[in-house]
Amino acid sequence: MSSVLQLLSALSTSSECAEISFAHLDQFIHFARHLQPEISLGTLKSDTPPTSLPEHVQVFLSRTLEMPISTIVSLWSSLRQYIWGIPQPHITLLECSLFNEHGSQLPKKHEKIAFYMFYPPHTRCPCCNSVLTSISHIAATYFTRDGPFPAYSTSLRCKAGSCNIRYYLNFSVDLSLNLRQYYDQPLPEIIHLKEHSFIQTAVSELFTACTLFAWVSAQNCALIYNHALSSYGHEEVSESKFMLTSTQVWRAFVLVSLLKNWRERGRQLTMQNHGQPERLHACDTCKKLIPSDLPNSYKELRSLCAVVMDGVTIGHPCCKVHNCTQPLPNNRHQWSRSGHRTCSEPDHSKYEDYRNLKGKGFFLLRQRLQRAGIHQPSTSLSSFSPLESLEFELDVDSDEQDLMHKSDKGNWPSKAFFARRRTHNAQLVVCACGIISARATMFGAEAISGVKDFLKSVYPNRNDLPDVIFYDNNCHLQSHLQAQQDLFFRGTMLPVDVFHFKSKHKESDEFCQKHCNPLQWTELVGDNGEWVFNSSAAEQGNVWIGGYQAIVHEMLPHNYNFFLDEMIKRRNEVLVAKLRRAGNAPYRIPPYPAVL
Description:
Blueprint: H1 2-12, H2 22-34, H3 36-39, H4 55-65, H5 69-85, H6 93-103, E1 116-118, E2 133-144, E3 147-158, E4 165-167, E5 171-174, E6 179-182, E7 190-194, E8 197-200, H7 201-214, H8 218-232, H9 246-265, H10 271-274, E9 281-282, E10 287-293, E11 299-312, E12 317-318, H11 346-358, H12 361-371, H13 391-396, E13 421-422, E14 425-431, E15 436-442, H14 448-458, E16 468-471, H15 474-484, H16 498-503, H17 510-515, H18 537-546, H19 549-552, H20 557-581, E17 587-588
Parallel strand pairs: 1-3, 2-8, 11-16
Antiparallel strand pairs: 2-3, 3-4, 4-5, 5-6, 7-8, 9-17, 10-11, 11-14, 12-13, 14-15
Helix pairs in contact: 1-5, 2-5, 4-5, 7-9, 8-9
C-alpha cells in the first residue's frame, strides 16, 4: 500500500506524467527497473538512484516508448525513488523483443542495450574499495532453454592503487599477473563461456545429463539444440553467432564441473591426486555382515566389503614408445621425428619410404607388369631405373611375401606399424553395488605389475583395502605377489570372479584352482547357496563407460581424463541417491593415513 501511495504522490508532482497512459507508464517503470544495473554504472552509491539517466538509456526509453526525451527525464525525476525500491518486475516476451529491437538500433555514439545485460557483482573493488571505472560493453550471445538471445557483457576495472583488476560476471582477472579468479559464491545460474558467449547453467546440465545417460557427444548436443530451435521457429539460429558449437558445449561442461567441484572442496580441482569422492564407498549392498566362527565356539558377525576390478577397451592416442605416459602435443602426433612416421634409424625409415612409394601410380603399374611376367623396361636415355634400388623393400613387405614358402629370415617377416597407437585399456575398480571407486589408464598392456601399482595407488594404506577384490586374472596377480614377496595384500581375498573362473580358467591350472576359486571362501556364499556379492559389477560398469569410446577416442589425455572422471563422479552421485532411496545406507569409510 505504501508503494502505491508513493507512486501516486510522485505522479501528482509532474504535469507531464498525468497525460501518459497507464500502459506506457507501466512499461517505463518495468524498463527502468530492469535497467537499474546499467543506470547505476559509475555511481558512487549503487543503492541510491542517480539524479539523471545516462544518455543512451534516455534515447532507448524514448524510442521504445515513443515519448519525447523531455518526458523521459520528467518521469525519471518523479519516479526514480519509487523505481529504485521495487523488486525486479516480470518482463513479457513482447517487452523482451522491444528491448532487443530498439536497443540494437541506437546511434553508434551510444552504448547498445539488450534485454540480457550481464554485469559484475561489484561496483566497488573488493580489494581497495575504490569505485570501479573503465566500463567496457561487448556484444555477446546468451544460450538459454528458450533459445539463443542477443546480450551485452559489461566489465569494470579498478585503476586505483596497485589493483589493476577487471571484473566480469563470474570472475575477475588480475591484468598484471594474467590470473583469473572466480568469485566466492554458489554455482551461478549463468556461465560466462568466452568473451562473446554465455550459457544458462541449466542448459549445460541438460547436455551433461544427455551425455551421462545416453552417451551423446558435445557435437551432437549442439546439433540437437540448433536443429530443435530452428524447427521451433527461432530465426536467429540461422546466423552463425547464434549457433551453439561443440566447443561451447564442452567448455560449459568443464566450467560447470570445475565450479561445482570448487564449491564442494573450497579449493582447486585435484581429481587426479585424490581420486573419486566415492573411493572408499560402502553400503548395505557391497558391505555384508558375515557370521564368523571363532575358536571359543561362539559366532560373531563381521563385515566384509568387496570390489571388482576389470579393464575395458577404451583409450586415447598416445606415444608409440611402449608404456610411455608423456602426452602428445596434439592427436596427430606420434612419437616419431617431425614429418615422418618412423624414427631416424635406417632399417626403420626404409619401411616408410616403401610405404610412401607404394601409393604412387607408377609403382602400381610396375606391380601389374610383374604379374604379367614383364620386367620394367629401362629408359632410352639411361640404363638406370629409379625403382631398382627398392628391391629390398619389396621383399620385406608382408603383402608381397610368398606365404607358401618360409622366408630365409624366419617365420615372422618384419612389419612396420604406421597407424597411431592408443592406450591399451581403462582399468576400473567397481564396488559390488555398481559404484565406480577408481579408474586408471593402462598404456601398453594390462600388466600384472601395473594392476598391482594401480590398486596400491587407490588404497595407499593396506587398512583401506577391501576384504575381497575380484579380478579375472587374480591367479597371475597372486603368483606375482608371491614371487616378489609382496605382503601388501595379505588378509585380502583375491578370487577370480565367478563368470571368468568358469569360462576362462582351465581346470588343469592347479595354482588357480587352489588360490583363486571363489568357492574356497565360505564367506562368499550365503545360507541360501547364492553368492553374497555381485562379482559381475565391473562388467556392467564396462558396458556403461564403453559407450563413450566414440566421444573420447580423439581426445588428448587432459580432456580424456577430466571427461571420464567427471562422468564417473556424476554417475556415482546418481547411484548413491538411488541406494539411499532404497534404504541401503550409503556412506564413505574414513581413510587411514597413507603409508610412507
